[in-house]
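Section 5: illustrative case.
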């Protein structure tokens, strides 16, 4: 059993992807070729924004967003400690300071109720993450930002295809950023990413930043990066995008089935507000999820993971150590009090989920989780 099955998807798309790649080899525009422009156009339409700017990775998309907003040394950016390191890494790389605010215990996303107390005279932006495939409370976060004249960067690396009150993730803030890492809901066959915005001026800055700050050939009004999306990756993503709506629906169906099966065996939901041997994820009102990860909470996580591994069922931990406890952030940056993140990091366990997961495999996984955690042995 595979944690994420990329082979089945490729078998469905192989002839079309090979034709796309051959077209790139023939025209030879490997940097900023026509496939990049086509992908940006289609993705902007899909998200519902005016501009999509392809990037070399999700990390570079976040970095480019900060540079385009001219955030830098001495500034502060409020974000979550319960995410992949790239979110805070880019803040530190430009000389700013990540300010870690704790998470909501139901959705695992940045808790808006704690943001205001973290705002200082140095705060320039808020960077919420749509963790595990569902959006944060962007309406409240945007309102707080507007009140304090702050920018908002939506880290949608795990949530492309998800929505909040009918609006697509990636289009819920001043700038949205996503990743096309192969294991993401919409993934390429290498690194890639994108920024989304409705702001024409910001879009132009982002295009300059991704190309060494270049406004026109050999004229550089700002510092930038080599952040361009490869044409070959864009060609692959164009074919994958055609399948994406069906895969979004499959992810939602499989995630909901996991929850139903586990709760039938006695698991509780994070929304129940109780401690239980197994907690299933809960969707906030107005949210859909692409379940970039289907993540449960369990007691004795290492023992549970080991028992599943013995049965050939892979698992993963996203994420075992909050960012403010990482060594790199503990000098002058890791003094934030985030007890919910610390507690949940000890219990989360991600189960296999991808659009091609069979019901038989899912039944086997649920039975193994039940056996390892003391849930009911049958429905």
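Designed sequence:
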């Amino acid at each position: 059993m595979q944690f994420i099955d990329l082979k089945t998807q490729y078998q469905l798309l192989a002839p079309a992807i090979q034709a796309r790649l051959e077209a790139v080899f023939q025209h030879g525009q490997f940097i900023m070729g026509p496939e990049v422009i086509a992908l940006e156009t289609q993705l902007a339409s899909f998200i519902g924004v005016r501009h999509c700017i392809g990037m070399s990775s999700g990390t570079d998309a976040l970095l480019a967003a900060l540079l385009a907003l001219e955030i830098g040394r001495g500034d502060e950016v409020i974000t979550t400690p319960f995410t992949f390191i790239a979110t805070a890494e880019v803040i530190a790389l430009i000389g700013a300071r990540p300010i870690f605010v704790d998470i909501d215990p139901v959705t695992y996303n940045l808790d808006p109720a704690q943001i205001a107390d973290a705002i200082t005279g140095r705060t320039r932006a808020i960077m919420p993450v749509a963790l595990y495939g569902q959006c944060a409370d962007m309406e409240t976060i945007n309102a707080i930002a507007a009140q304090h004249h702050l920018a908002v960067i939506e880290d949608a690396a795990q949530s492309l295809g998800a929505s909040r009150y009918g609006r697509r993730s990636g289009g819920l803030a001043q700038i949205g950023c996503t990743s096309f890492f192969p294991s993401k809901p919409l993934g390429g066959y290498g690194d890639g990413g994108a920024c989304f915005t409705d702001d024409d001026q910001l879009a132009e800055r982002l295009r300059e930043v991704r190309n060494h700050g270049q406004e026109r050939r050999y004229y550089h009004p700002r510092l930038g990066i080599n952040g361009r999306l490869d044409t070959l990756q864009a060609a692959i993503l164009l074919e994958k995008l055609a399948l994406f709506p069906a895969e979004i629906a499959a992810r939602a169906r499989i995630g909901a089935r996991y929850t139903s099966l586990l709760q039938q065996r006695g698991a509780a939901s994070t929304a129940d507000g109780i401690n239980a041997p197994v907690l299933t994820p809960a969707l906030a009102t107005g949210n859909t999820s692409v379940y970039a990860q289907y993540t449960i909470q369990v007691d004795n996580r290492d023992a549970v993971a080991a028992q599943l591994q013995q049965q050939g069922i892979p698992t993963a931990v996203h994420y075992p150590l909050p960012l403010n406890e990482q060594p790199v952030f503990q000098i002058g940056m890791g003094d934030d009090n985030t007890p919910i993140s610390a507690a949940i990091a000890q219990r989360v366990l991600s189960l296999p989920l991808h659009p091609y997961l069979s019901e038989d495999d899912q039944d086997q996984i649920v039975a193994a989780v039940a056996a390892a955690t003391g849930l009911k042995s049958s429905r």
